[in-house]
Design goal:
The chain contains ten helices and four strands; from the N terminus they run H-H-E-H-E-H-E-H-E-H-H-H-H-H. It is α+β, with helices and mostly antiparallel strands and 300 residues long.
Length: 300
């Protein structure tokens, strides 16, 4: 194919977007929405996983020992704690140190603890876990260690983040699949409208000997451009929304949430991968939708 012919076909495909601008606008809107949801799900999943890592570092269990454990027994308990696959690190706080910590926490009122007839603070191991989704199971395992009186841990945070990860994955995948199919249908209908509007021209082209490629390329170009425009719009929208939400989430919140939201991944680290994904997905969906319509409605 000569260069002049290729340029003509490219211009024809782009011109068709304007001729069918209502359907083209609908296609761009649907495909942009699809890409936005895909991008939002991708960014949300990455950041939830990143914040789960931060929460895991902050989540601790208090392994309270039975009263009167000897140093040898405490060392044995330490060994069994470290042997657990989900234990990241441990710190031993003796009853004496625990009492001093409590005095320090009470400030000037700590002097009230000096007159106690005995130390009510037990020996404690502070345990950090690797995977907070296994908090409840790990708590039960540590509680069965001989010499351990009880294990205090909050499984609510772990359950919340684990449930959130599952919901994001399940709902996100379903929505993405549904919108992907809808995008293909809308794009195919857009191309179909173009084919119907140009049916007489196409027949004349076939009668004068136009090749299959010469007839098909403008429609493929149209679908490609629909996908590319949608990808650009979606990328810019996600970029603006991400920066806005990042600023909103890191201001006017308590210290723990501020520290957690500080682990939101900067958009600059994700922009290249996200841009490539949007571009490839948008153009592939657009071109594939056009190819489906051409195959079904252009008999060449």
């Amino acid at each position: 194919m000569r260069g002049s012919s290729f340029r003509y076909l490219m211009k024809t495909g782009i011109r068709n977007l304007w001729r069918n601008r209502v359907m083209a606008f609908t296609s761009i809107g649907v495909l942009t929405t699809c890409l936005l949801l895909v991008g939002a799900t991708y960014l949300l999943t990455l950041n939830v996983n990143n914040m789960v890592g931060f929460v895991e570092q902050q989540t601790e269990m208090s392994v309270i020992l039975e009263e009167g454990r000897t140093s040898v027994e405490i060392d044995q308990i330490r060994t069994e704690l470290l042997a657990n696959d989900n234990v990241e690190s441990i710190e031993f706080i003796s009853s004496a140190q625990g009492l001093e910590n409590q005095k320090a926490a009470m400030g000037d009122d700590g002097i009230l603890l000096d007159g106690l007839p005995y130390n009510p603070i037990p020996d404690v191991f502070t345990v950090r876990v690797k995977d907070i989704s296994l908090t409840v199971a790990t708590q039960e395992q540590l509680r069965r260690i001989e010499g351990v009186e009880t294990v205090n841990a909050s499984g609510e945070v772990a359950d919340t983040f684990t449930s959130l990860q599952r919901v994001i994955g399940t709902v996100g995948s379903a929505v993405i699949l549904a919108l992907g199919v809808i995008s293909l249908v809308i794009i195919a209908n857009t191309i179909r409208a173009t084919i119907f509007a140009r049916r007489k021209e196409i027949n004349i082209m076939k009668f004068v000997g136009a090749t299959n490629s010469f007839i098909r390329i403008p429609f493929l170009v149209e679908g490609f451009m629909l996908g590319l425009i949608s990808a650009i719009i979606a990328f810019l929208a996600v970029w603006c929304a991400y920066h806005y939400l990042t600023q909103a989430l890191t201001t006017d919140v308590n210290s723990f949430l501020q520290a957690m939201f500080a682990h939101i991944i900067p958009f600059e680290q994700l922009s290249l991968d996200l841009g490539i994904f949007f571009g490839v997905t948008g153009t592939v969906l657009g071109t594939f939708g056009s190819a489906i319509s051409i195959r079904n409605h252009v008999r060449v």
